[in-house]
Amino acid sequence: MQAFINPIGLERIGWRYYIVFCVLLVVFLSITWFSFPETKGYSLEEITAIFDSKDLCVKDQWPVKGGASIKGEMPETIHQEEV
Fold it and tell me: How many CA atoms does the CB half-sphere of 78 hold within 13 Å?
């Protein structure tokens, strides 16, 4: 889609189109930064608990099964593999 819009924008407003493009990049970056939870350093089970909860994760408050949440540190998860 954007490949079709870029030539039209450059033709109509010239070099100022790059300003529009940079503003859109800042908007997309801010939405991503403030909307998506950080997943670095968490196990897959912890990430699943965050994304499967009914409410979003709030700082120092972790979702647990059933949509409830607990305060403080993330509880230890038990990972058992079947042989």
Answer: 2
What pLDDT, in 10s, does the model give residues 2-52? 678 888 888 999 999 999 989 999 999 999 999 888 888 888 888 888 778
pTM, two decimals, is 0.48
Note whether 45 and 77 are within 8 A (CB).
Answer: yes
Cα–Cα distance measured from residue 66 to residue 82, given in angstroms and rounded to the nearest whole number? 25
* Cβ atoms 22, 14 nearer than 8 A: no
3-class SS at 7?
helix
Q: Look at residue 63 and give its three-state secondary structure.
A: strand
CA atoms within 13 A on the CB side of 13: 9
